[in-house]
Amino acid sequence: MLLTKQIYRVVLLLNIKMRLSKASFLFVLYIFIGTFLVACSEKVQPESFLLTGPTMGTRYHITVVSPPSEFNQEKLQTSIDKLLVDINQQMSTYITDSEISIFNQLGTNSWQTISTDFFKVVELSQSISLLSDGRFDITIGPLVNLWGFGAGSDKEQKIPDESLIEQTKSKVGWQNLVLDKEKLAIQKLKPINIDLSAIAKGYGVDKVSNLLDENNIENYLVEIGGEVKVKGLNKEGKLWRLGIETPSLLQQGAQKIVHLRDQAIATSGDYRNYFEEDGVRFSHTIDPITGRSVKHNIASVSVVAATAAEADGLATALNVMGFDKAQALSNRENIAAYFILYDNEQSETNYRIWASNSFNRLFSK
User: Fold this and answer.
1) What pLDDT, on the 0 to 100 scale, is given for residue 81?
2) 329, 357 Cβ separation under 8 angstroms
3) Which helix (H) or strand (E) holds 255?
4) 181-236 tens-digit pLDDT
């Protein structure tokens, strides 16, 4: 039993967005192993349990430690499920009568009143777009589909014609969204659609975390599709241990372990979703400025922030920007970012690491 105590650890492998199903599987696996080992320990551990369910095309996983005595697990899960259904009804493009679908069908220069949550997500997205000089853009969907990377896209993954890229770029542009905060309304200045898939899961994590706070739960981990937020301590009474995944199809495991408390983390990368043409790799990450698949040496970038939505959006923005611009932005804006970089073009065996000043300060110990 002493050996069991010594070797016990819980490591969540954070996967990029296009690998959600495996990320969810690994998460459940590690939580199960951790729970089993603690149960075998001679030391009495605090009560903990896992809640899980489908949402946003993936699953949520919530670990709760030492809940209050009046806590009702079944009632909490019901509340969580309802909350996530409501968010989907606001922000899912797969639901024909969702708020976002209605807006995407709306004509130009018309105003639509929207929910507070929907407004907050679009507002945060716009602020990240401004911060990143437009590299984060929730109107980028047509370009992603053009390259064959859109969810449910029937287009072949290949390099589009130059003229088609330029034509499609005219359908993209975050600057053409107008928000009225007082009236909670949104308007488009030209025929564009929005897609919140690069930030909605993070926001869902934050909303679930707020619900747990309202239920006086002080120790928890919430994960949706690889976006994570934690509070308090884990079942061992220690900081939550989260792993940033080795970005390789050849290697498995965590490249970096971070210890978090009352923080969120998200990872964006391109090493699993791409196609090759004439020996050249083309990432699923599309630059809305050029309209092309990004070509840089970033394998993945992870961001630690106060909210999962912020971490989610910033990780995507930094990944699109390329290392030089992302490095400068991270240090200028005090973004806690951890980069895994291809050491020799896009080799899956050689990497180098760079962390921003804020990241180093957080984990200097």
Assistant:
1) 98
2) no
3) strand 254-260
4) 999 999 999 999 999 999 999 999 999 999 999 999 999 999 999 999 999 999 99
